[in-house]
Design a protein that fits this description.
Chains A, B: Pfam families: DUF4743 (PF15916), NUDIX (PF00293). 2 copies of one chain form a homodimer. With 300 residues, chain A is α+β, with helices and mostly antiparallel strands. In chain A, 28% of the residues lie in helices and 26% in strands. The interface between A and B is medium-sized, with 35 and 35 residues.
Chain lengths: 300, 300
């Protein structure tokens, strides 16, 4: 069974989104970022070098590890001390990613089930390889004849990240202290004007997890995935200006698009997960079926 | 959010089924098993030692690798030469697993999408850490009121593996040359007397992948998972004698059972995947939600 060009492009997308696990990634040279003896991220060497200028916050690299100073022994002192360093680095213009400062606090924890050890500005998490969590929603319709279509958003051309690309109908990062369902309902409302009465019917189905690196940092992310069947007569509308348009597309077209450069990569993974769960991809005809499933769920 | 005893037991199940990835596993000492330069498995050191007695089939360990002799340069000669060695080892009683000889040929390939390089007797695959593929079917019903129940099988007390334990309604290994759908229909018919007309309505939804080790070998497996909604008036019946009984149970009861020693472990994983995809487990109330999802999809 030969793999199609679509299959190859899709496998390539998954490899790219998991390039931190590939031979030759910065993983071998990254330092573990630890708080109170527990690893919460990965720090690339250039970032670690700069942090040595702040010995009152970050201990010196030792045995492949950078630790927060133990004197910072609880949530608020840690968060505030790191935030002060990040503000300085931001003013110095040391890192491009800090130009995308969001004033959004993300929880830092060894695992999702652990109590947060501190919060960190969202834009800085990749410098520390701190895992970020978010919510993505597959909005779809089912016609009376059973035909499934999916609503896609086209991101605003002025979005800081991935401007102008195709995206799921709604989604967003999980800010410190917010529940997953609350975030889902909020993002549906803000981004696509989906009223809470409809958004609350979204049902949790999966997570999509991946870790990639670029020049500046390590992006370790897990997205909680929800499916939301939208009424046939409902149309998402532009809300907070993060979206420029919405399209309702046949599944074949969505499948084709997810493997193009026109799609935000992690959102394309969420769509791929939908296509697999809803049997639009079959293991006897898709040679990379198992690679697709495992590629959607990588973690360290 | 504290984890329940059920959550802890379920996480433990996933860790156990992926113990090959844990620190302290034999992974560090295993030799790569290669055919024509491509890795197809992992050979534990005791197995590798025995194989040096067959230098016309297996090259000597070199650089952490045991290779099939290059003179065995195609599918049939490789398969037959290895089979002859395995027959000898079986007669010598060297390995317990060979007492479970099945006369079932499994394909050996670097990845599922690759052409098979040879076949190997099913009972021997764990000695070489050769990946095995199978099909598992979640058989369930939905009442008029929307209540979901699941059919479970109780394995025969005379089954060679996991006798007497709870299992999915049907499932089986993928023999060399068989399609996934063909295997599904055959196993539904043989194990549960589900007629082809019903079994063919099963829809592919996922894979469950894991690698565990025991004293004798490495079990690297991927199961293609199908959901099959059964008619309310249909009852599976004992077919080929591999099952002693079938039960139709409420989902809460199935959830409780999957985290007990009464359930065949990989089948319990298939049920866990069902519970997640069908929203019977929710991320705001299950602290290990993301660990569960990633634990169901581990690969090297």
């Amino acid at each position: 069974m030969a793999a199609s060009a679509w299959s190859e492009r899709t496998l390539h997308l998954l490899r790219r989104m998991n390039n931190f696990y590939l031979p030759g990634s910065c993983r071998a040279t990254c330092l573990r970022f630890e708080i109170d003896g527990a690893q919460v991220g990965w720090i690339p060497p250039p970032v670690a070098s700069l942090l040595t200028s702040y010995p009152e916050v970050f201990g010196p690299p030792h045995g492949g590890t950078v630790s927060l100073c133990p004197s910072l022994n609880s949530y608020s002192p840690r968060s505030e001390a790191v935030q002060a360093v990040l503000q300085t680095l931001r003013q110095q213009g040391s890192f491009t990613c800090l130009k995308g400062w969001r004033d959004e606090k993300y929880s830092v924890m060894p695992r999702f089930s652990d109590a947060p050890l501190m919060w960190m500005e969202r834009a800085a998490t990749s410098l520390f390889g701190v895992k970020r969590y978010g919510v993505h929603i597959n909005g779809y319709t089912v016609s009376d004849g059973g035909e499934v279509r999916m609503w896609l958003a086209r991101r605003s051309p002025t979005k800081q990240t991935y401007p102008g690309l195709l995206d799921n109908v709604a989604g967003g990062g999980l800010a410190a202290g917010d529940s997953i369902k609350h975030t889902l309902v909020k993002e549906c409302q803000e981004e696509a004007c989906i009223p809470a009465a409809i958004a609350e019917k979204a049902y949790p189905v999966s997570t999509v997890s991946y870790t990639y690196e670029d020049e500046e940092g390590v992006y370790a992310e897990s997205q909680f995935v929800f499916d939301l069947e939208l009424p046939l007569d409902f149309k998402p509308r532009i809300g907070d200006g993060e979206v420029q348009d919405f399209y309702l597309l046949p599944i074949d077209r969505v499948k084709e698009l997810l493997a193009t450069e026109d799609f935000k990569p992690n959102s394309a993974m969420v769509v791929l997960d939908f296509l697999i769960r809803h049997s639009f991809i079959e293991p006897d005809t898709e040679p990379y079926y198992q690679d697709f499933v495992t590629g959607l769920h990588q973690t360290l």
